[in-house]
Design a protein that fits this description.
The protein is an alpha/beta fold. The chain has a single domain, classed as Metal-dependent hydrolases (TIM Barrel, Alpha-Beta Barrel), CATH 3.20.20.140. The chain has 17 helices and eight strands. The longest helix is centred in the middle third of the chain and has 19 residues. The protein is globular, with a radius of gyration of 19 Å. Bound molecules: hypoxanthine and zinc ion (ZN).
């Protein structure tokens, strides 16, 4: 029974809306790029890296995530990273992706905007031509840095605005509430950019309200802790607000204790517009289909839930209504 559901999830076309491209850096590529660029890492081999991926909370992960991305130096590095992710998408029937990147994680190390923009975008263009995968780019601000740094980053990105669909907010959530980023989100809105924000991963429901009311977001990334507030849940349902949920991330960062406690099924049954995503697949044990497999095994999802999740992934995307309908028609034809 679960084998048939996993096969169905694997075969259906899907959109991924919550993937940090730097979080798709596999241990093997990390070592290879470190060697290529003469960068010292505190790991002797792949097993050392995998053994280090033992996280108790978001910050434990972020410390290794920022260390890992230090091997990304050249346009070719960013291209190779992005292309490797897109090949995984192709293998897993992810036909559209909306990719986060963390410019401040690179500019702070002296890497110029044009290096990562050219590297990432050349891979996205190649994937559209050769793999028929469409994509959008979302530039995230690191919330452990101040709003002035985010505003400067947005200004530095102005020559690349045509390549960007939206902005996001990520990194250490607790102590860095959405309300600290009102100005930069307002400026992004003036520039015609979509807005998303991580909220309610570790932070309280209050942060989800702030993302909605103060940042005026189009989607909430994670949003798990919204479930603690029934008024908020009702509001999210009524607004058809998208939640980009990341099951394996939630387990590895102790947002849930056990995968059987994961709220994805409950979210759907409450009428929330949730979809499945991998977040940082190289760090959390899998890409899109492994995330489906994990929740199918642990939470008793039905065939209808699977169809709902993949349909939600397209409905929540920043594609046009016509493009979304084309994908939904393909999904319906597989019912
Ligand atoms: N949460 C916050 N920031 C992040 C994450 C996450 O799951 N992944 C990469 N940056
Ligand atoms: Zn994330």
């Amino acid at each position: 029974m679960t084998a048939a559901l996993k096969q169905l999830a694997a075969q259906l076309p899907k959109a991924e809306l919550h993937i940090h491209i730097e979080g798709s850096l596999e241990p093997g590529m990390m070592l290879e790029l470190a060697r290529r660029n003469g960068i010292k890492l505190p790991y002797a081999d792949i097993n050392d890296i995998i053994n280090a991926y033992n996280f108790n909370c978001l910050q434990d992960f972020l410390d290794l995530y920022y260390q890992g991305m230090s091997v990304l130096q050249t346009e070719q590095d960013f291209h190779d990273l992005t292309w490797a992710y897109l090949l995984r998408c192709h293998q897993q029937n992810v036909v559209h992706c909306e990719i986060f990147f963390d410019p401040q994680g690179h500019t702070e190390r002296g890497i110029a905007f044009e290096i990562f923009m050219n590297g990432i975008c050349s891979a996205l263009n190649k994937a559209e031509k050769e793999l028929a995968i469409t994509s959008k780019l979302i530039m995230c601000f690191l919330r452990h840095l101040d709003e002035q740094s985010a505003l400067s980053t947005l200004q530095a990105a102005e020559p690349y605005l045509d390549l960007l669909t939206g902005i996001g907010l990520d990194s250490s959530e607790l102590g860095h509430p959405p309300r600290s980023f009102c100005k930069v989100f307002a400026r992004a809105a003036e520039l015609g950019l979509k807005r998303v924000a991580h909220a309610g991963e570790e932070g309280p429901p209050e942060y989800v309200y702030e993302a909605l009311d103060l940042l005026r977001v189009d989607r909430i990334d994670h949003g798990n802790r919204s479930l603690e507030d029934t008024v908020l849940v009702q509001r999210l349902v009524t607004a058809r607000m998208s939640l980009t949920v990341c099951p394996q991330s939630n387990l590895r960062l102790a947002v849930v204790k056990d995968m059987s406690d994961h709220p994805i099924r409950k979210m759907l049954d409450l009428g929330l517009n949730a979809c499945i995503n991998s977040d940082d697949p190289a760090y959390f044990g899998g890409y899109m289909n492994e995330n489906f497999d994990a929740v199918i095994d642990a939470t008793g999802l039905t065939r209808d839930h699977i169809f709902q999740l993949v349909s939600n992934s397209f409905k929540s995307s920043f594609l046009t209504q016509t493009e979304i309908q084309t994908h939904l028609d393909h999904i319906d034809a597989m019912r």
